[in-house]
Design brief:
The complex is a heterotrimer of chains A (about 300), B (about 400) and C (about 280). Chain A has about 300 residues and is mainly alpha-helical. Chain A is built from ten helices and no strands. By secondary structure, chain B is mostly helical. Chain B folds into four domains: about 40 residues; about 50 residues, no CATH class; about 35 residues, no CATH class; about 230 residues, MetI-like (MetI-like fold, Orthogonal Bundle), CATH 1.10.3720.10. Chain B contains 16 helices and two strands. In chain B, strands 1-2 form a two-stranded antiparallel ribbon. In chain B, helix 9 crosses helix 10. The radius of gyration of chain B is 32 Å and the shape is flat. With about 280 residues, chain C is an alpha/beta fold. Chain C has one domain: P-loop containing nucleotide triphosphate hydrolases (Rossmann fold, 3-Layer(aba) Sandwich). Chain C is about 35% helix and about 25% strand. In chain C, the strands form two sheets. A six-stranded mixed beta sheet of chain C has the order 6-7-8-3-9-10. The chains are: A mainly alpha (about 300), B mainly alpha (about 400), C alpha/beta (about 280). Chains in contact: A-B, A-C, B-C. At the A-B interface, helix 1, helix 3, helix 4, helix 5 and helix 6 of A face helix 1, helix 7, helix 8, helix 9 and helix 10 of B.
Chain lengths: ~300, ~400, ~280
Amino acid sequence: MAGAGITLAATLLILLILAIILGNVLWHGLPSLSFRFVFSGADRDMFDVNKAGILPMLVGTASRVILMSFFVIPVGVITAIYLNEYAKPTSATTRVIRSAVNNLAGVPSIVFGLFGMGFFIHFAGGSMDRLFHPGSAEPVWNKPGILWASLTLAVMTMPLVIVATEESLKAIAPGLREASLALGATKLETVRKIVLPQALPGILTGGILAVSRAGGEVAPILFTGAAYYMAHYPQALTDQFMDLGYHVFVLSTQSPNVDQTRPILFATVLTLLLLTFTLNVVAIIIRARIRRGMRAAH
Amino acid sequence: MTSGTTHPLENADPWAGIRRGQQRRPVEWLVERAIHAISLSAIVGVFLIFIFVAREALPIVLGRATSASATQVIPLEGLDTRSPAEIQKYLGLTPEQFAALDRDAKVDLMNLKLETAKGASKDRDAAVNTLEWRYLLLPYQWSGYDKPEMIWQPVSSIHKYNIIPLLIGTLKATIVALLFAVPLSLAAAIYVSQLSSPRLKEWLKPGIELLAGIPSVVLGFFGLLIMASFLQEVFGYESRLNAFVAGIALGFAIIPVTFSIAEDALTSVPGSYVHGALALGSTRWQAAWRIVLPAAIPGVFAAVVLGFGRAVGETMVVLMASGNASIVSASLFDSTRTITATIAAELAETVFGEHHYRMLFLLGALLFGVTFLSNLVAESFIHRLKKQLEGKA
Amino acid sequence: MTSTPKISIPPSAEAVAPGETGEAPQARSAADSRILIESSDVSLFYGPSQALKRISIDIRERLVTAFIGPSGCGKSTFLRCFNRMNDLIDHVRVQGRIQIGGHDIYSGDVDVIELRKRVGMVFQKSNPFPKSIFENIAYGLRLHGMRNGPELQGVVEQSLRGAALWDEVKDRLHSSALGLSGGQQQRLCIARAIAIRPQILLMDEPASALDPIATAKIEELILELKKEFTIVIVTHNMQQAARISDLTAFFYLGELIEYDVTTKIFTNPGKKQTEDYVTGRFG
């Protein structure tokens, strides 16, 4: 029976680690997390405990995540619909697509960063500059910017949205589709009026998971759009942006005096964690509901 | 409802309408085409990733890039003895430009070239193309060193691109992470899937999976600012940031991955296996250890392989907690530099298309390859598990 | 391809049906009725394996035709050929010809959507949409172009009455259909199918998941519906087939063994296999 005790201990240890991380951040971060800190702009001196604020980072992270959702949710949902409703499950194309999606999920985030730089900035951005701004001395699109960062993140989170949507599509009783088709509905009408309304919670989960995952990612935006410091908010798709996660990195590694900037670092980490955790918890709750519904349907 | 009732959808010849051809729903047709096209382009995207990362690295792989800063010098007499095409290439001119120059201008250019060659590094390694495979993989005795060494030092007068130190660094951090995370998450998976009550499981599983919601930059921060000093005090090693600290922090990142996969695999073992064992008088733990775990072993392998892939590819944790010195050492307590951290730290300083830039893309392609392979392997393990359980159940 | 002789109602049927039984369901003579569905030499393949073997059968208008046979005999598969629901499954190939109302429904110019509007279907497991009772009925009507208004409401009521459900649900038309009992759900599905006024109603074991009382209600309903619709019903319940159908076809291993007036199938079958099955010796 010692074995059973060890497994329990391991479970508790993992939960303890989680508790220590969260507790630590909460304990040190909460005292410095003031209204002024969250809602004031970054001072030129980002490391000044009394003046620094994280509003620009919040705005930057929120903008890139919202922009990303515009790309990833429609494309991901449509791909999932194609895979689950239209594609023949046994065909070679479907299998290639599925295994590509699975593999996409395992590609390291830094590789997405390289891809963003090679494809979006240099290839797409470079081509756009040659086409639309042939005489310009300064690159317009051929440089890091919020559009390229969002697109990179959209590619990265695509599998999350596809998998979550597919899961909820599979949870719909097949009899509903048959009933609709037998009434003379076309496939598209069935998808639009019966399947999609039912899949909505799953799509929502996928979207939230993607947003929460992308919100905390730093590696893919290191060279596709995040800025160390900016005096103004991003105003165009080509502008760079300040970012919450990247700011944690900057404060942890570039601070002239780590002990002095500790309070704002902890407060920034706490803000980031609060955001991603809230989203995660919401997604977990919705997902649990879907799974319960799925068991009921089959 | 009698047959006398008129119905709005009823018409005289009910069957006439069925034969009217199928090409009448252009909107439907268009939307379906669009769905098809969009989902296919999502897939094309995956291949684009590979193509664009590999494309930038290709010149190195094919041996077409050169980092040698010193070039062969043609003396002034060469202008008469060598072919014009050779001179034109040597001076770096297009044929039109070359033809437009008179002899004096060419002599001036030749002299200029000689002068710059004199000013160039006297280092005997300056003429070495450090991008050749042997310099990337084998030790080499660089000038100024007293024995052959493997060095990653891209920003110096001689660009040294030996990737072995980075591979060793990556491997060290990954092994520590796996040694830490696999036993822990496997044990937890056994507990949660086999031994805990269903009610408890509803809390434990999402609880552990919450760990996956912590952004890796936060784990890196935690490793760098809190764990590093704590572990240094406990173990008393010299370098505060090292493969050990990075590996443990990396372990936090892969626990949710290995736990989820292993837990799924263990749960997928049919309950009848357990009931059979329990009926024969074994305890729940014995049933879990001797019956369920062996049955689910391909799934456990898949969990380890996916954990490996995740650990190799994780960036922010190692970038912040490993110390980032590219030294070849077997000690876990030396500062260490991984492939991912190298890309993250150096890419911003490179020039587009230059050899350092291409070298980092080569590392990226390598990462892509390794994680792609580990995904395939894990997928085949999971496939085997499914087949095995279907066959027996 | 040589053609197997079509099994159709023998001339003697007219004499047999009303004369010897005199029971209510068979009151209308099978031979009086027009042929509505004409199937000749229909074979169906799932990939390489053949599920239906050259089936030829005539289904007559405004009668109840029952398909019986042991599970896996192809009766449901054959039923689904009439509204081409088999099109939805991969690698299904149909050979031979099915004509409904004189039109080959597998011909290239047939619009499946239009076909399904005319050939309604009720499934084994009741499958109401997770919408309100009203919306379940209105769904098909809206698909075919009916707008909100008194007309829509009228047809919804008419359909629910037609499915003998109106009195039970008239006060809660806008509550979820999933709150109904199993039998009510199945009658809702029937109401949904008849709302769009099909000519033919295919029923795939509509009562197999219901308790005896709910089953009795469905059977009663079928006898009522046959006044207006041609009904083809698949059932594994032989008493049910005997109670409600005018004609019965017995399928075995993908083949149509015997097709005749129901009373004849159950009292004096022509084939040994049929006799073994209806007397309960196998299946």
